[in-house]
Design brief:
The complex is a heterotrimer.
Chain A lengths: L2 H41 L4 E10 L2 H4 L7 H6 L3 H9 L6 H9 L6 H11 L7 E7 L2 H7 L16 H12 L3 E5 L2 H4 L12 H32 L4 H15 L2 H15 L7 H26 L2 H9 L4 H29 L3 H5 L20 H9 L4 H36 L1
Antiparallel strand pairs in A: 1-2, 1-3
Chain B lengths: L5 E12 L2 E12 L3 E5 L6 H8 L9 E9 L2 E2 L7 H7 E4 L10 H12 L5 H14 L3 H4 L12 H13 L5 E5 L7 H14 L4 E5 L3 H7 L2 E6 L2 E7 H6 L4 H7 L5
Parallel strand pairs in B: 3-8, 3-9, 6-7, 7-8
Antiparallel strand pairs in B: 1-2, 1-4, 4-5, 9-10
Helix pairs in contact in B: 3-4, 3-6, 4-6, 6-7
Chain C lengths: L8 H34 L2 H32 L3 H31 L8 H27 L2 H31 L4 H33 L10 H6 L1
Classes of the chains: A mainly alpha, B alpha/beta, C mainly alpha.
Chain lengths: ~425, ~260, ~230
Amino acid sequence: MNKDQLLKKRYRAEKRFKFYGLVSITLAILFVIFLVNVIFSKGRTAFQRTTIAVEVNFNTEELELSSNASIEEIQDADFYDLSINSLLKLYKTEGAKQEKELLRVFSPDHDIEIKNFLIKNLDNLNKNVIVNLTTSDDIDQLHKGNYPRHLPEERRRISDFQLLIYDQLVKENKVNKVFNTFFFTNGDSRNPELAGIGGSLFGSFFTIIITLILSFPIAIFASIYLEEFAPKNRITDFIEININNLAAVPSIVFGLLGLGILLGTFDLPRSTPLVAGITLSLMTLPRIIIPCRASLKAVPPSIREGALAVGASKVQSVMHHVVPLSIPGTLSGTIIGLAQALGETAPLILIGMVAFVVDIPATPIDPSASLPVQVYLWSEQAERGFVEKTSATIMVLLSFLIVMNFIAVYLRQKFEKKWS
Amino acid sequence: MINNKVKIKTTNLNVYYGDKQALNDVNLEIHSKEVTALIGPSGCGKSTYIRCINRMNDVIDICRVTGSIEIDGNEINKKEIDVVSLREKIGMVFQKPNPFPKSIYDNVSYGPNIHGLAENKVKMDEIVETSLKKAALWNEVKDRLNEPGTSLSGGQQQRLCIARAISVNPEVILMDEPCSALDPIATAKIEELMDELKKTYTIVIVTHSMSQAVRVSQRTGFFHLGKLIEVDTTEKIFKNPNNKMTQDYITGRFG
Amino acid sequence: MSDEAHIVKSYEEELQNLNDSLIKMGSLTESQLADSMEAIIKVDKESADKIIANDAKINELRAKIDNQIMTVLVKRAPMAIDLRITISTLKISHDLERIGDLAKSVAKKIKPLPHDLPKELIGSLRRLGDLVQKQLRNVLDAYLNKSKESAIAIWKNDEQVDDLTNTAMNEVADFLGKSKKNLELATHLLFVTKNIERAGDHVTNIAESLYYLIEGEYLEGARPKGKDIEKN
């Protein structure tokens, strides 16, 4: 083969290599677009809620209240009859079956919604007021276009009569879509239209805070000690190898550890962010220690020598010079470690965070769910409404992760620019 | 010109890195208030030698130093010696300029600060100013003391490091190839500065540049494979060395 | 001297070229001196012209050596032995050039001479000439071999040159005393003798430079003087 041919061959090889690279990148981007598209198209509608405008007469007699009732009195009052009466006025019904069908157009907690409306607007007592009430999941999905209405009646969850009601109400402009605040403020519920991630948001928040409080200082001190002070011998080598191994241990193993030791031996309260936080910090520790050590190692030895040469002690040289220089790497490593912990499901399932918790946790020792576990829980549900909720939760979780990663990148770039 | 007062004296100095012997029975006297140059091929132990003087080798776990190192007749190669106050007395300037990633002012004030040399801000300002003046850097930086030290040019950074070293009033300044990363003009400025500094300080410089050793030093020691082969006045070493190995090294015949 | 070669081959070549030029200059000077001695004794006016013309070659060589030395100094910044080689070569080349000049001025003195020299003057002059030639040859050999001992021997031999010069001078003075008409010839011969003696001094200079090249130190003590030794 002469030189010319060799040269051509080389160029061809180069082009081929570039082509493979391009194909891989394109495939990767396509997969990401596909994934995001699926999640987004499914989850988008979960941020909206369908309501129907209902005229309610807050008659004090019917509610057995005085005309200047206090909030406590209203809380104690029974709104069920008032609510049923108001709803039944919406459409002419014949017989108990149709009445029942009409009522099932609405979410089962309609009386509580009405009560809450009154509590917010106390001056509406003894007045006729239009209240937007949440529809049932089926009507919600129908209105969002997720529900096929052309199937034969026996294969639908919505009866023909309900469809009639729905169409009439749409004609009367009584069906509205509003922003679904329930999704963010409510706890879990068996009714998809009422279910929200409020509980799991707080659960995740408490968990991450506990993980941060526990793992960050321990990781920082461990890595500073190992990197700067520990003698280089077999014991430290052994510790180093084990830290690397621990970082690679499947997270479910940490879940088992939490189950066995925290719940079993120490008898800590099950299903709580406290236990989740401790378990996750065990898991996150090595994952933070490794980048922390790397960023300490990246500080040039000349800085340490410079400090030592003017007579700084070892601790002074580390604390005054090395640690400040390693902060960007340390912080971004920590944030990425926490982001991983935030997305962790398996260990939380083992320590009982899969429980169905309706209440929003007020403290880290209240039972709660967390975002990834919520995704897991809802993805198991049959109702159509939970499908969109699942995707929407994934969207929330992903946006948290993306924000955290951006913060990590930002911190790293900002501080590195300043120091280089 | 030649001063006969011995400032640093090492006797039978041996240094081991693990199993490897880096210095072999080095007996060397460094005279007060003059520049002593240490030359020799890479890995000959000259840097190891000067790092013994301010006990910088302590940082390396596997490093073992035996023999005697006396400064003004006081043994420093023993456990009871506090390296922090030793290093206050013996400053060091490194091969690559290594200013702290802080302001110029903070770079110079760091040493006096940790040693508590200034009672107040006024005194500290004074120390910073005199140190920078002694390092011939004051005029170039007096208007931007709050800018980071890393924003200076290579030569200015190295002079900043010299200012940092002299800020704690040392008696000896060790320089480990201080000009190897600098251009000729910056090198000339450092050499000029050394001429000035040697009136106050005892300077030991490790250098790979023979011509620099000739220019700046009064005495020169030649190291090879961990041994001190020859030490004499610089003039003697570069005009007519006694040892053939020295001659072969400085004339470029080595190996 | 160092038996090891420089790591940089071209440096080694430059020093070798310098050495070669000096040797060439040395042998040229040697033959110029021999020719001029031959010519003065035979009063060969034709050779005299040739010798005068040849001196230009020596000057050229000296200029070349100067140039080579500057190159080495600029390019290599020589140290220790190399520095001494360069500096000594510079000095030796200047001494050689001076010897060449002296040979030339001896040749110039031939022109005004009558056809024959008095027999009684030829002996001492020839002996002096032969001795200086031998000294020059020896010093060039010593340079080639870098022999410290030869350098010292040559340096010490300068006594003999001085002694022979004195003898030759005395003879010329006697010759002058015999008759007033000998004045012109005697003056010329005095100059010639003095020139040869000075050539001998330059040879001694070369021996000193050579000693410095080898030892890095100057030869100790004052230069031996024939008369002083006589007095003692």
